[in-house]
Amino acid sequence: MSPINNDWQFKHALDDMDGYHQRQVAALFVRNVLDLNPDPRVLKALEVASNYDSDPDEMNSTIKSIMQAVLESHARCGAACKWSDQAGYYVARAAAACLTPRSFTLGKDPAWQAALSCRMARTSATLDCLDCEPVTESLKQHKILSDYLESLKGTEP
Amino acid sequence: MSAPSVEKGIRFIREQIDAPVASFFSACVHCGLCAEACLFYTQTQDPRYTPIHKVALMRRVWESEFTLWGRIKSALGLTKPITEADFTEWETLVYDGCSLCGRCSLVCPVGNDISGMIRKVREGFAAAGHAPEGLIGATTRAIEIGSPMGVRLPALQAQIRHIQESTGLEISLDRPGVEYMALLSSMEIMNFPEYLEAIARILRQAGKSWTISSKAFEATNSGIQIGASDLARVLVQRIVDAAEELGVKMVISPECGHGYTAIRWDGPNLIGRPYKFKVKHILELLDEFREQGLIQTQGLEEARLSFHDPCQIARKGGVVRQPRALLGLVAANFVEMSDAGAMNWCCGGGGGVSANERADALRLTAFKQKKAQLDALKVDTLVTACANCRITLEEGLEANDMNIPVIGLTEMIAEHLVETDRIEEKSA
Ligand code: SF4
Ligand code: SF4
């Protein structure tokens, strides 16, 4: 398969994946922005998302704790915005997207949701910073997905 | 501007006592119906949260200065003066214990607009220096930066870039001569970027031209929440100037309850003249598009879902039919809450309560009213149309271990649009 170079190819490649592979690749996107949120609940969510046969109880408790992390990190109405904190919120949202049932998200692809939140996280982290490099998270995600699809070759029928 | 003081606070309260307020005080028959309508009273059973009690300081000013008996008492030195301690005591009732939801005003048998009076009495509290820290900070940022959360233009531009890159949609800033100027709330910019994407998708399908003003993109008005009409006027004027400069026909108020009340209802009174453009809430506009056949949707949500009416939109704005008509397009299993529509119970976070950290515990207690409504319904999903309601509901649900997602109606409609592949158009 040729490498993914734009969001059209990216989204279509994600659309073609089943739920398990979507969760796995979503977790890879989030790992790439983990430096923006050190919350252990995020890491735990990624572990569970990447695991093929997670125990349903563990899955439920992990969803609950990552949703708590999302709620704890959002900007509260009227509070002064700190974009570096907001980056953490978007990482938590991305991690939650890896696990949230589709019925909770209007049927959106978890991996696409996670990708968008990771991009917002990276952008948020640069908003208070004048010297920061321009954000290239989408390009990194194209590469992550290309590599992931490449790694699947030969492992599946 | 002189420093806040008790004297200034009392003067500001006195200035708010016009003929309707005076008649409200004389008309009150002490029936207690307003108490039963207020979630802060019903969920605490604390008589101090009785709505009419929240304006007791205003009543004292009215009695001592506007009634014959009160003036005689004052002349004889029998009137108890209002003190700093009174302001301190009532501050938590007026700000923490009232979301300005307006439910009390609707039930009062003699027609007292108690919610409006609480809004007015806040003018005195702000002038006396007795407003919550969170609201003071939000108002200062709104005046200095243009957003109560301090969201600056580069942040909005970054979000626009994001949406354009990932979807291929066009979102313009400061485009003159277009039909619509969209406002956003800072909450949407910071927490829910999906709202901006949703309106871009819907307006594109409807074939409408629109823009966002770089000078006035913020819909919320913390001047109104804190009770400072002079500051509220400045914030409304910014939007009016931007809309008139761009020559738009309509300003679209976003999924923000009090932002809608501020620009649609309070705005013309604050600036002292009618607008040269119309103002509509996004749901009113979407429903017009639906009626005109300008939006096509496909598929139905199968989840059992209900709609939380934001107070400012449903009770104060009368936007009740429209969300239901829109849900009819996309939801197969819509169920109505008890007391839905104009009598819906508040989420507890309006009127600046959610911006006031001190009120957190009380807000979660008041949320039990919403919990009771939802427990009776057993829904899988809750839909609403206000970013502040959404966060308040999410926090309340989480605190009560209720696993129900909360979704914005505009986003839900956008997700069901029949549209060609957005990214394909741009990148293929
Ligand atoms: S406006 Fe709402 S919250 Fe405030 S006193 Fe009236 S019913 Fe209670
Ligand atoms: S409902 Fe009206 S008349 Fe009855 S106590 Fe409240 S303000 Fe007074």
Summarize the structure.
Chain A has 157 residues and is an all-alpha fold. Helix content of chain A is 65%, strand content 0%.
Overview of the structural elements:
- The complex is a heterodimer of chains A (about 160) and B (about 425).
- By secondary structure, chain A is an all-alpha fold.
- Chain A has one domain (about 15-150).
- Chain A has 7 helices and no strands.
- Chain A has helices at about 5-15, 20-30, 40-50, 55-75, 85-100, 110-125, 135-150.
- In chain A, α3 packs antiparallel against α4 (about 55-75).
- The longest helix of chain A is centred in the middle third of the chain and has 18 residues, at about 55-75.
- Chain A is globular, with a radius of gyration of 16 Å.
- The two termini of chain A are about 15 Å apart.
- The relative contact order of chain A is 0.19.
- With about 425 residues, chain B is an alpha/beta fold.
- Chain B has 3 domains: about 5-130, Fumarate Reductase Iron-sulfur Protein, Chain B, domain 2, CATH 1.10.1060; about 145-290, Glutathione S-transferase Yfyf (Class Pi), Chain A, domain 2; about 305-415, Rossmann fold (3-Layer(aba) Sandwich), CATH 3.40.50.
- Chain B has a 4-stranded parallel sheet with strand order 2-1-3-4. Chain B has a 4-stranded parallel sheet with strand order 6-5-7-8, with helices on both faces.
- In chain B, β7 (about 380-385), α23 and β8 form a beta-alpha-beta unit.
- Chain B starts with 5 loop residues before the first helix and ends with a helix.
- Chains A and B meet through α1, α4, α5 and α6 of A and α11, α12, α13, α23 and α24 of B.
- Bound molecules: iron/sulfur cluster (2 copies).
- One iron/sulfur cluster binds near residues 104 and 118 of chain B.
- One iron/sulfur cluster binds near residues 28, 29 and 112 of chain B.
